[in-house]
Every structure is written in C-alpha cells, then in structure tokens.
Design a protein that fits this description.
2 copies of one chain form a homodimer.
Chain A: H1 18-31, E1 40-41, H2 43-50, H3 54-66, E2 70-73, E3 77-80, H4 85-108, H5 112-130, H6 134-151, H7 155-175, H8 185-197, H9 200-216, H10 230-234
Antiparallel strand pairs in A: 1-3, 2-3
The first copy, chain A, binds a DNA duplex (30 and 30 nucleotides) through helix 3.
Chain lengths: ~240, ~240
DNA sequence: TAAAACTTAATTGTATACAATCTTGTGCGC
DNA sequence: GCGCACAAGATTGTATACAATTAAGTTTTA
C-alpha cells in the first residue's frame, strides 16, 4: 500500500482487511485533495497500484460511494464526487443546523482528555500548515469538527456531521476562493477556549460564525450558462 | 426474485442490476418486519433463494450495511441490525431536530401534485391496515415522513431523514409496546391538512408532537441486567 | 469530407474457484 | 460425565475467469 498513514477517524464500514485499508487510503487522498473531484478511479488501475485484486477494489469503491466521496456510474466507472453548487449550499445549511448545537453539547461534556485531543488537533493542523502541507491541514481541520461531534456523545448526529465534513472537503476542493487556509486560525482556538470553559452558548455562537466564515469563502454563485453559439464563434 | 414489489423509494446506491433488486427486496422485507432484527442473512442461503451468485449477494449486503439496516460482522456474516436503546433515543432526538423544520419547509413549498402524493400514501396506509398488513402499513407510514422531507427540497437533510426512518423501523421492531398501528391515524391527516394550508408553524408543531407520540410508544427503559447466578438457580 | 456503420479494445458486472476463518462435531483422557 | 484437543464442515474473504457494456478506432457510405 503506498499510503502509510491510516486515519482511524474515517468511517470504516468494513472492519478490517485489504478493502478497509484501501478505503482508508483513498479516503485520505480525497480528503487531502490529492485525488480531486472528477478524478476517475479505475478498478484495474487501483488493483495494479495497490497490489490487490479487483474484488477488493470494488468493495472499497462501494464503501467510498456510500461515504459519498465517490460516485459510481454503472458500466462507466468510479469518479471522485463533484458536488453541485446547490448541494454545497445544502451541506452547509445542514452543518449550520447540526454543528452549533453539537458544539454546545460538547461544551457541556468537556473533559481534560477531550480538551487535550482537540489541542493536539490544532497543533497538528498548524504543523501541517507550517510544513506547507495544505491538504493535510485541510483534513485535520475537518477532523477537528468531527472530534467535537464525538465529544457531544450523540453518535447518530456525529455520523451525520462526519458525512457533512467529508462532503465539505469535496465542496472546498471545487469552490474555495480564498487564498488562505480553510479554517481561520483563531476560530479553532476560540472554540477550544469556549469548550474548556464549558460555555455552551459561546461554543454554539462561535461554531455558527465559524461555519458562516467557511461558507463565505466558497464561490457558490450560480454560473449562468452562456448560450454559446459555436457556429457564430467559429464560423468564418 | 420472490418479491415483486420494488420500492423505488428506498436508497439505492447501485443504479440497476440484480444487486439493486436484491437490495430492494431485502430492504422491503426489513422495513415490513418480515426480516426481524438479529436475523442472520447468509450469503449462500440468499444466493440460493434469489438465484444469484454470491457476488451479487455481497454487493447487496454491503449496501444494506451502509443503509444501516444490516450489520456485517467480519468472518461471521450479515445480520439484520439491532439498535440499542441508546441508539433509539439518539435516532428520535435527531428526528425531533430535523423533521419538524422539514415539515415547515414542506408546508412552504406545497403543490397540488405533492399533496396528491401524500394523500395517496395515507390511503395506501389505511388500505394496508384494513387488509391486516401491518408490516406494509408500517413501511408506508415511514415513507410518508420521507415524502414530506422530499417536498421540503433539501436533499442532504432528506437523505438523513431517510436513514433515520430506516433505523426507526428496526427500533420499532424491537421496542414497540403499543398494540395499535405505528402512527396514530389522525396524525398524518392533520399534517396533510397543515401542509395543504401552507401553515408551516402548524406543520412543525404537528410533526413535533407526532414524533413524541411515536417515541412514547417505545419501551426504552434501560433494562437492568440481573446478576444471574445459574448455580444458585439450578443447583439442588 | 463528414457522418454513419462497423470493429476492436478497454472496462465494468458477475460467476466460480480457492484460501482463510469460524463453528460444530467427535474422540480421548481424567 | 466433563473438559480439552483435534478434525470436519460451513461460511466468509479474495482471486480469477467469463460475460456484458462502453469507449475508441477504423472503414464505408453519401
């Protein structure tokens, strides 16, 4: 397997085995924008690269499809998903609905151990940025959100948030317009502060504005399709 | 295929083919409580019953696993899921968070066509009850909720609601304590009325109380596990 | 020369064979 | 009769072969 980093933080429908490892590798590559939206993931190609049979590849691709990171097109192949503008809006609307209250809930359940985990996340994120690993930083900032949802200890909603974060990664790959890194530097710090203080209301407000900030950096203008008349353009 | 009714309303990750059909058949059987929580779904057995190869069965089972209707246990097989009491609570908490606002949104977007679809759902539900098909009535009542989420036209949240409704079906199979049918007869009528009037506030309130009603019919007491001393009980 | 028809190659969908793991049954010793 | 070790059988995980479909290339037709 080319990838050595196995993020146990990703949804893993299969418990173990080569298909789980392949799922994790591809998931990581997608989250870190090494595999960009629209990329075709051919079964034989992956089978060659990862030295597993097509069976394993297919299982992993199906799981990625169910994680909504990959779109399977029957008889045509698997492609890294390309969320539409509309879907981008929906995803962030759903995040705005779920994450602030989750942050509040997390604040009410805070432990030293959980705080430590969050701080490690932020630290790792900054390290990745300092090392010029923007993809890794991006993934870690997404996981920061997932970590908060886990602290809130409502696994059904945490599962949804995990999906939304995954989807957001693709949306960001397609629509991000800001030069700087994904999550504004201070936002995560401020969140951790609020969580440390057990201040649910503050955590909730900070998460709201944090999500709005992310959303504001996405270029979600509906691009009017110009009525192209090729004959007029190319005709002589 | 033993089942002729193919509910296009279920999540179908695979677009077509025998695995999609098998997925639909098993999904329907689970939703209608023909396959109960804990039931083992053996690959060879399903392969024999449905006259498809194990490959197709495995694909369908993986999809069912991702729909959270089935739990895959590595090297042990696939089983219809058995949500815990805790998870039951979480699912209904998530439903209480998502569905009322969705009902409000649906009320604001109501069309004659959508109304007609809802009324057909209710009618079919009553027909099933009258015919003593409680499983079918149960599935239809769940789909009524899904239909509302579709009218609300937020596909990300509709997808979550669909998952929650699926999970609810299992929860109901395990924990339902009321003799009567799942959804109180008047509740769906009242909802359709509010939706017809475009009364979002009313729709939201009715959905809230409807979900509370369902929740109240579930026996979610944490069962204290008695410390059973078999020697004392059986010893002479 | 462009479009349509046909052929070939590539890829995905499915079946089947083999390997790995788990469960159940049997035999043996105490 | 019980517990343990081992064997056999059943089932799942994976690899490979074959079938079906799509994409790309080539030839024919107007």
């Amino acid at each position: 397997m080319p990838t050595t980093e196995s993020p146990s933080d990703f949804i893993q429908p299969m418990l173990k085995g080569p298909s789980a490892q392949l799922f994790a590798s591809l998931s990581l590559a997608i989250h870190e924008h090494k595999l960009l939206p629209g990329t075709k993931l051919g079964e034989d190609e992956l089978s060659d690269i990862y030295k597993v049979s097509r069976t394993v590849v297919r299982t992993a691709l199906q799981a990625l499809s169910h994680s909504e990171l990959v779109e399977l097109k029957r008889n045509r192949g698997a492609f890294v998903s390309q969320p539409t503008v509309r879907e981008a809006r929906e995803v962030f609307e759903a995040r705005a609905l779920l994450e602030p209250r989750t942050a509040r809930s997390a604040a009410e359940r805070m432990t030293e151990e959980a705080l430590e985990r969050l701080e490690k996340h932020i630290s790792a994120e900054h390290d990745a940025l300092a090392a010029g690993q923007s993809g890794r930083a991006l993934r870690l900032s997404g996981q920061f959100h997932i970590e908060i949802s886990r602290i809130a200890d409502q696994s059904t909603i945490a599962g949804f948030i995990e999906r939304l974060v995954a989807r957001s990664s693709l949306i960001i790959a397609l629509y991000w317009k800001r030069q700087s890194a994904l999550c504004e530097k201070h936002a995560h710090h401020a969140l951790v502060d609020a969580l440390r203080r057990g201040d649910g209301a503050d955590a909730e407000e900070l998460m709201k504005s944090h999500l709005l900030d992310i959303l504001s950096a996405l270029d979600l203008r509906e691009v009017a399709q110009p009525a192209i008349n090729l004959k007029d353009i190319l005709g002589k």
